[in-house]
Amino acid sequence: MSVNLPPTAGGPAEGLTPGGSPAPGPGSGGLVPGMTATVPAAGPGPGVGIDPGRDPGGPVRGTSVWMDAFLRLRRNPAAIAGAVIVALFLLVAVLAPLIAPYPGEAVPGAREITPGDIPGPGELPQYPLGLDRFGGDVLSKLVWGAQSSLMIGVVSTALGLAGGMLLGLLAGAFGGWIDGVVMRIVDILLSVPNLLLAVSIAAVLGQGPYAVMIAIGVSQVPIFARLLRSSMLSQKGSDYVLAAQTLGLSRRTITMSHVLPNSVGPVIVQATLTLATAVIDAAALSFLGLGGGRPETAEWGRMLTYAQSELGIAPWLAFLPGLCIAITALGFTLLGESLREALDPKSRAR
Asked: What is the maximal distance between C-alpha atoms in the chain?
């Protein structure tokens, strides 16, 4: 006598395949005994690409924003050109005591100068780029002028960055009436043209390199303040800030440990661009006679000042320092703009 057992709901009897064979066990890898399976060759499936940030068989390796920006800069010709120019400028400025044939204020060729003639480039072998009106070696003055421009540009940018970040931090962190007062001060400073503000401050402080540094630094404060404030306000609405507030972190901890570090990227990029402006402003203030020092002082703007009266007989005295100013500013501008593009989220998404 045989008994027919009803099949389980939705399928064959338990332990049997639809054809009546025993079902595969848990250790059989999904195969029915007596059957073999063909294993496909290893490789990415359809639509699956190889992610350079993934290690096959291992964990996902993340890339920081700054490392991603560096990798993008390495593939950008403009960034490479700007970096080369800036590197050469820094090397010449730092190694000026070793590169310059003569001290900055020395006039070794004073006896070679006549009222109607100034030896130019290539005329005297000991002075490759010629002499100026006072008998100074032009090559030496250009080299020492790079050091002076670097010092003024870096110090003034650092002053502007420190002051701007302080004001921007106050406005972005506290908001309310503090934000209103700080931004009104910034608006007043921005209402005056940058160079005119620097000239006014330098005229009040007196002639000298320190007055030029302070004047240029103060004129840059509102730029950094507005940029940091706007960046912090955009970050304060992010999800990670809401999560930190939910965890009960204080406003000081959230601002200093989370919001501020994520807001300084655009400020650093702007500082690179501002270095180019600082070099031009320093030359402009020295050209106007606000840089102080003696007429023989090695500074690019001062060289342009005393080259005006010699354009008829020695045009290279104005061309060479002007070319140095333009190339240096171009290098910082190319590097800064490339860094801004590399850190731009829209650009990184492409």
From this structure: 136
Counting other chains too, the contacts that 306-313 makes at CB distance below 8 Å and 24 or more residues apart are 306/132, 306/133, 306/134, 307/132, 309/133, 310/118, 310/132, 310/133, 313/116, 313/117, 313/118
**Location of structure tokens 């332990």:** 15
**pLDDT (average), residues 199-218:** 88
Buried b / exposed e along 23-40 (16+ C-beta atoms within 10 A): eeeeeeeeeeeeeeeeee
For residue 159, pLDDT beyond 50: yes
Percent of the chain with pLDDT over 70: 78
Helix (H) or strand (E) holding 17: none
Instruction: Output the six-digit token pair for 172.
Output: 């972005």
Q: What is the DSSP letter of 59?
A: P
CA distances from 332 to 146, 276, 343 (A): 14, 5, 16
How far is residue 139's CA from residue 131's CA, in Å, rounded to a whole number?
A: 8
Amino acid at 92: V
pLDDT range class, residue 345, cuts 50, 70, 90: low
Residue 52 has a pLDDT of 46
Query: Is the domain defined by 128-349 classed in CATH 3.40.50.720?
Result: no
Give the span between the Cα atoms of 207 and 69, in whole angstroms: 41
**Domain layout of the chain by residue ranges:** 128-349
The whole-number pLDDT of residue 133 equals 84
Q: Would you say 212 and 154 are in contact if contact means Cβ atoms under 8 Å apart?
A: no
Q: Which residue has the tokens 């059989």?
A: 28
